[in-house]
Amino acid sequence: MPTSRLRVARDPALALIVRIFVGSVAERWDVPEPVRDDLRLAASELFSRAVEAGDGDIVTFELSSDDTAIELRAEDVKPPEEGTADLEGWTARFDLVRALFPDAEIGDTVRIRIPASA
Which of 3, 42, 74, 100 is the most exposed, having the fewest neighbouring CB atoms within 10 Å of its CB? Predict the structure, then answer.
């Protein structure tokens, strides 16, 4: 199973690096351009959330592929606690990711799976 991983500091200036990483790996694996664009957008939203949260130093993005699916996993992008002011911003980001990928698993680690032949 091929896997590519990017570990990046929570610095807003590095958002472009996250988008380039996700797009480049997806292109290398022949993911169609519209799906690549959606993966880049989802990764950008998740990274922005991690930067806003400011918890920890590093965010990890990992793309893996097998015969049936490609998975984007983002670690350390956990949603805020219930009742915090930041919950509304996270909810909007979650809604966008969910609109793009209805089966996305959202939590401390976010998992987005697409068919390998998307």
Answer: 3
- Encode pLDDT of 67-87 as tens digits: 899 999 999 876 656 555 555
Distance from C-alpha of 27 to C-alpha of 61, rounded to nearest angstrom: 16
Q: Tokens representing 52?
A: 């806003």
For 73-104, b where at least 16 C-beta lie within 10 A, e where not — what string? bbbbbbbbeeeeeeeeebeebbebbeebbeeb
CA distance 32 to 97: 18
d(CA 43, CA 110): 10
How far are the Cα atoms of 3, 39, 64 from residue 11, in angstroms, in the given order? 24, 20, 24
